[in-house]
Design a protein that fits this description.
Layout: E1 10-12, E2 15-17, E3 22-31, E4 37-46, E5 53-58, H1 65-76, E6 86-90, H2 95-100, H3 123-134, E7 141-148, E8 152-160, H4 165-174, E9 178-181, H5 189-195, E10 200-207, H6 213-229, E11 247-249, E12 252-256, E13 261-265, E14 272-273, E15 278-283, E16 290-294, E17 299-305, E18 309-310, E19 315-320
Parallel strand pairs: 5-6, 5-7, 7-10, 8-9, 9-11
Antiparallel strand pairs: 1-2, 3-4, 4-6, 8-10, 8-17, 12-19, 13-15, 13-18, 14-17, 15-16, 17-19
Length: 322
């Protein structure tokens, strides 16, 4: 199906949206047990001038509030009103998870592992299928905003697949503090976009069930630079110039707790550490045990476990190995 016709009219969810139109529409997904419809609001802004279509999403995991907040700010500040082309914003893709503050859908499945979905599959798979068939083909570019998992705080970063020069260029334009090479995960939203040849930037920052102003700032400013590169940014906006280039990370390693106990982190997120550097302490609750945690590699700390209590084997730091 051709989503934009020769007259620059966009057809989305069976609705025709003319150039110069601002519209809020609902992506009807499913119903609650009470038969109440659950609808996913979609905010569409179209310029009269033709140009690319950028799809901006948050909340694919319902408890990842930072991603939702970034997309909210993009809308609230009017950044989503393009000088040319179309910007489609979906702040909360997984409304089910958002209502319950859970990562997954009610069926226990992770939407970001169910793409491209199935018309007759479980609930999360059906939503993935509808999204892939009825919304995604309209996009020329995708920006997707995420956070770290429970208690695991990610430094602001863009993740791209290795050996993709186009994505690397876009990541450098976005200019998050870190750009991390990571392979596409099978059945993820990112992997589906790759198969459809839609350039896709995955932003990670902060942790679930938490809103962090600094992380949101990185996400919004990166989006400004991205849209400015596509000549879509409105005349009222001036993208902030990068302070320094994004740090490219080719390889990473996880550090795991050698003991169970109380975790006391001694370094800030994003710090460059030397192998053997003292970065945390694990203690028992009774004052009789104290274990110094030392960095197992030289590199940047791109994820920190902020849980006050850890078990032996829990991931506590994610380090670059550059």
């Amino acid at each position: 199906m051709k989503f934009i016709d020769k007259n620059n009219v966009l057809t989305l969810l069976d609705k025709k949206i003319k150039p110069g139109t601002s519209i809020k529409m609902n992506f009807n997904t499913a119903k609650l047990y009470t038969t109440t419809a659950v609808e996913v609001p979609i905010i569409i802004e179209r310029s009269k001038k033709p140009g690319p279509t950028v799809l901006i999403t948050g909340g694919i995991h319902g408890d990842e509030i930072n991603g939702v907040e970034i997309v909210r700010q993009i809308i609230a500040k009017g950044i989503n009103k393009p000088e040319r082309g179309t910007i489609i914003c979906i702040p909360v893709v997984n409304v089910f998870g958002f209502l319950n503050m859970t990562r997954e859908f009610p069926d226990g499945r992770d939407l970001n592992r169910m793409f491209p979905g199935s018309k007759k599959g479980p609930l999360a798979s059906r939503i993935a299928y509808q999204f892939k068939e009825e919304i995604l083909p309209a996009a020329d570019y995708c920006l997707d905003f995420h956070t770290g998992g429970s208690s695991r705080f990610n430094a602001a970063q863009i993740r791209i697949r290795p050996e993709d020069n186009q994505l690397l260029k876009l990541a450098e334009i976005f200019n998050a503090p870190f750009t991390v090479y990571s392979k596409n995960i099978s059945k993820s939203y990112r992997d589906t976009c790759a198969k459809l040849n839609i350039p896709f930037l995955l932003f990670e920052g902060g942790k679930s069930q938490d809103s962090n102003k600094e992380i949101a700032k990185y996400g919004v400013e990166g989006t400004l630079r991205f849209l400015d590169h596509l000549q879509m940014l409105g005349e009222d906006f001036l993208p902030p110039k990068p302070i320094k280039p994004s740090i490219i990370i080719n390889e990473t390693v996880w550090m795991r707790a050698k003991f169970s106990g109380l975790l006391h982190v001694k370094i800030p997120i994003g710090k460059h550490v030397e192998k053997g550097e003292y970065i945390a302490i694990i203690t028992d609750p009774y004052g009789s045990f104290r274990h110094k945690v030392k960095a197992t590699a030289t590199g940047y700390v791109i994820n920190v476990n902020q849980s006050p209590i850890v078990y032996q084997g829990d991931a506590i730091f994610h380090l670059s190995k550059n």
